[in-house]
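Ticket reopened. Same input as before:
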Amino acid sequence: MPHLFHFPGACSRVTMNALEEIGDDYTDEPINLRRGQQQSDDYLRVNPKGKVPALVIDNFTITENPAILYYLHQTYPAAQLLPTRKTPLASSIGLTDMMWCSSTLHIAVRQILRPDSFTTDTGSLDGVRRAGTAVFAKAAETMASRLATCDWWYGETWSILDVYLYWTYSTAGKGGFLLREFPVIMEHARRVQSRPSFQRAHAREMQAAASVGLEQDFARADEQFR
Ligand SMILES: N[C@@H](CCC(=O)N[C@@H](CS)C(=O)NCC(=O)O)C(=O)O
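Engineering reply: fixed in the latest deploy. New output:
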């Protein structure tokens, strides 16, 4: 059975949502990032990079959200985590978009939420946050113009990209990014939240958050869209 190492509200929630969408059994284990558990000897044996998510299947560990999601998409095609395209060239679009989330948006979001993880110079924190906000504002324009004409990133059909985008903008919002200036994104968020797989993952994360005493903080990112 797959075993997911995660932290409630972290980018690992995208992987958890994918597993819920697939619907097979899996086990999960929260790694308390607030307490530095990601640097414990036990966890570094699982993922020497000290990050979540990590998905262990048959004693093999996959890390990096796009790699895990792409693996799940290929292994469980019926779940339609990404649109199925006829040629490898056309299929690369799903990977491209997931890499955008992980390598550009995730970094900008982190600059907004945790500028202190980029510099030890406390006088530079505002500058780091402003730089992240500028990158994310452009991305939010891109998301909003695309989502203004359709419900989901790929048009008529939900995909795991919608959840990945949700994670980036909800986390940016938690860090003070003015999401209310993007009503189209606010509406997209409500659609993502209403998906049953999202709700199941959310409940499972909530349980994990309670187990480490962090349910208040966990709820903040999702409550912006009420
Ligand atoms: N490139 C990785 C990034 C993973 C990542 O940065 N995860 C964060 C949580 S959102 C983490 O584990 N942070 C712990 C730390 O940096 O100490 C991915 O896309 O999966």
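Strands lie at 3-6, 27-30, 54-57, 60-63. The mean pLDDT is 96. Please confirm and we'll close it.
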